[in-house]
Specification:
The complex is a heterodimer. Chain A is an all-alpha fold. Chain A contains 11 helices and no strands. Helices cover 37% and strands 24% of the residues of chain B. In chain B, helix 3 crosses helix 4, helix 3 packs parallel to helix 5 and helix 5 runs parallel beside helix 6. The two termini of chain B are 32 Å apart. Classes of the chains: A mainly alpha, B alpha/beta. The structure holds adenosine-5'-triphosphate (ATP) and magnesium ion.
């Protein structure tokens, strides 16, 4: 028997900046295959090969292919520039990791502020709402420019002068607004009876949040959170706009300027994809698993 | 069970309790008093306000008028520490509401460690003793979704008992259970009554009410229309509405 209020997280998926909607209705990429058995797999493999071969043939034999190839898929250029770009990508990973830690903490604070009931907490709720509305309403790249160039330019005593530092701060401020909304959806998805149970044991409001609501809420929002992680990893490229010390995208840009060739961007793209595709697949897999579990009538 | 009774010896006294949800006045002046070790069953039609009354007693719902006095202390006065009051009152809901992300043991120790500030080991000793007593010790490391409904409900009651409350409120604790699971829970409650627990029980199980209650209160249209010893209420109810209600229960085959 399932516990009323224990099951069924609602759809919690908050779109990260500029992201297309998540596929909700369809089942997993491979799920249809397992039902069809070996024959199904064979058909899938053959038709995939045929489709990709035909597409490839059309592209390669199109009139402008040689030029496209020279500009974007230049082997020599790639060999030349890719190692540099790949090593610069470590910086993107570093920005990502540092930002993520602060985003997770700050966003949770914002979400908790917003969930506090009663007139006493109205100012906190209002602040949280204004904050999230503000940062969700302006392009992340604008915040990166504003802080990344603006703050160092003021030359305030005791304030870091590094453009990269402030660009990462901008990412933190901006992404926290989105992640706070994800957390909030999670918090609101916890049935009020859970809080009633906790409060009836004499736990304070804060204790109920800490021990009962937040642990369950966070578990439910892991897929959409990961989704925002993917967005953040991509948006570390925005730091390129304000820094002198290059990360992967900036490095690619410098190479492009030097050689009048766009292949370095391909290198940068590959580095991003190496990280983001597994994350995206993981999100999909988690969502599938959650859905299967919900259909099986499981609890959490 | 422990705190010193005041002069009138009442564990719980409710005076003129009114409660509305918006325009709907659910409780229209409830008066009820319980002595130590007394077991009172609340019966009444669906929507008559049994759950609301219990939730008001545990201060989970703000009341509009009236007083709730526990061991001589008015707990509905302004500025009272609701958390402290709730620690003295146990409440168990129809839907168990165990914490699904915690093991059975942690469900039971959470209140003692966080609200009562017991050490983890003290809380666990207390929890294990209760789980042992009610035959659930082997489930201590399981998560609630691995338990049957009846086991979950027993854990929910144990979770309340671990707070060693002065009074235990039970809100239709068997109505969400499959019939074959009901008796285990009812046996537990009987055992508590024998041990002297003061209880208010909202229930649709008339047979159970009849055999466990010292007093039965029939809730109708926001007031306690009739109360008395179970034999009197069930065999010779005075009020026509009580008769009607019991008749409808009888026809539904629930007695
Ligand atoms: N939070 C709420 N907001 C608005 N109305 C409510 C709320 N809780 C209860 N009510 C209303 O108050 C009335 C009494 O409800 P309550 O749950 O106390 O009845 P009950 O006697 O416990 O019924 P049942 O036997 O079905 O459990 C009902 O009409 C119900 O719709
Ligand atoms: Mg009820």
């Amino acid at each position: 028997m399932s516990v009323p209020g224990g099951g069924g997280a609602p759809e919690l998926f908050e779109m990260p900046p500029g992201e297309p909607d998540l596929p909700r209705g369809r089942s997993g990429l491979l799920s249809g295959l397992s039902q069809e058995g070996a024959k199904g797999v064979l058909i899938a493999v053959v038709s995939t090969v045929v489709v990709f071969f035909v597409l490839g043939w059309v592209v390669v034999h199109s009139e402008n292919w040689p030029e496209v190839k020279r500009a974007f898929f230049n082997g020599a250029e790639f060999k030349d520039t890719f190692p540099g770009i790949a090593s610069r990508f470590l910086r993107n990973v570093e920005y990502f990791l540092i930002a993520e830690v602060f985003i997770l903490a700050w966003a949770l604070t914002l979400a908790v502020m917003r969930s506090l009931p009663g007139p006493v907490f109205f100012p906190l709720r209002l602040m949280s709402i204004l904050y999230t509305d503000f940062f969700r309403g302006i392009p992340t790249v604008l915040v990166v420019y504003l802080l990344g160039f603006g703050v160092p330019a003021m030359q305030l005593p005791g304030v870091p002068r590094s453009n990269a530092f402030w660009a990462v701060v901008a990412l933190i401020l901006s992404y926290s607004a989105y992640v706070a909304e994800v957390y909030r959806a999670g918090i609101e998805s916890i049935h009020p009876s859970q809080v009633a149970s906790a409060r009836s044991l004499g736990l304070t409001r804060m204790q109920s949040l800490r021990f009962v609501v937040i642990p369950q809420a966070v578990r439910r929002v892991i897929p959409p959170l990961l989704n925002d992680f993917v967005g953040l990893q991509k948006d570390t490229a925005l730091v390129a706009f304000v820094v002198a010390v290059p990360e992967a995208f900036k490095q690619a840009q410098l190479e492009q300027y030097a050689d009048f060739n766009f292949t370095p961007y391909l290198g940068a793209a590959i580095m991003f994809l190496i990280v983001t595709i597994p994350m995206t697949r993981l999100v999909d897999w988690l969502i599938q698993r959650e859905r299967a579990r919900r259909q099986a009538g499981g609890g959490l | 069970m422990s705190a010193a009774p005041t002069s009138d010896g009442r564990v719980l006294r409710i005076e003129g309790l009114h409660k509305s949800f918006g325009k709907l006045e659910v409780l229209k002046g409830i008066d009820l008093a319980l002595s130590e070790h007394e077991v009172v069953c609340l019966i009444g039609a669906s929507g008559s306000g049994k759950s609301t009354l219990l939730r008001c007693i545990d201060l989970l719902e703000p009341i509009d008028r009236g007083r709730i006095v526990i061991h001589g202390e008015d707990v509905t006065r302004r500025g009272v520490d609701v958390n402290r009051v709730r620690r003295r009152i146990g409440i168990v809901f129809q839907a168990f509401n165990l914490f699904p992300h915690m093991t059975v043991l942690r469900n039971v120790t959470l209140g003692p460690t966080e609200a009562l500030k017991l050490s983890r080991s003290e809380a666990e000793a207390r929890a294990l003793e209760l789980l042992e007593r009610f035959g659930l010790a082997d489930k201590k490391d399981d998560y609630p979704d691995r338990l049957s409904g009846g086991q979950q409900q027993r854990v929910a009651i144990i979770r309340s008992l671990a707070m060693q409350p002065d009074i235990l409120l039970l809100d239709e604790v068997t109505s969400a259970l499959d019939p074959e699971l009901v008796s285990g829970v009812l046996d537990l409650i009987r055992e508590l009554a024998r041990a002297g627990m003061t209880m208010v029980i909202a229930t649709h199980e008339m047979g159970f009410a009849r055999d466990i209650a010292n007093r039965v209160c029939f809730l109708d249209q926001g007031v306690i229309l009739e109360e008395g010893p179970p034999d009197q209420i069930f065999s010779s109810p005075r009020e026509p509405r009580t008769q009607e209600f019991l008749q409808s229960i009888l026809e539904a085959g629930r007695m």
